[in-house]
Amino acid sequence: MNIVFSPHFYDNNQERKIEKDKIIDTLLHPERVIPDRKNRLIAQKRFYHRLLRVVHVKTHNTYIVITAYYTTRISHYEH
Predict the structure, then answer these.
(1) What is the pLDDT of residues 25-74, one digit of tens each?
(2) pTM of the model
(3) E strand or H helix at 59
(4) Are the beta carbons of 53 and 45 closer than 8 angstroms?
(5) In 3D, which of 55, 50, 53, 77 has the Cα closest to residue 66?
């Protein structure tokens, strides 16, 4: 499986500094994957007291990471 990071991801991650290994772990071993309104997927996984959300598009053999971010509002996204 190939993982490609979009320019938008790199722009946002300069400030967020989310480790790529955690993003890859979330993509390959998510606790939950949900669709969004733009035909993308959001993989979610908890790391300590935060939820990592990875917005991506998946083709037959590639993940394209659009953006990723942590939230502490875990209960808001787990319903």
Answers:
(1) 999 999 999 998 888 999 999 998 999 999 999 988 999 999 999 988 77
(2) 0.89
(3) none
(4) no
(5) 55
Pull the structure tokens for residue 77. 């996204």
* Torsion sign over Cα 17, 21, 24, 29: negative
Transcribe 21-44 into DSSP letters. Answer: HHHHHHHHS-SEEEE-TTS-EEEE
One-letter amino acid identity for 24?
I
Q: Which tokens go with 64?
A: 């394209």
Nearest Cα to Cα of residue 56 among 40, 71, 78, 72: 40
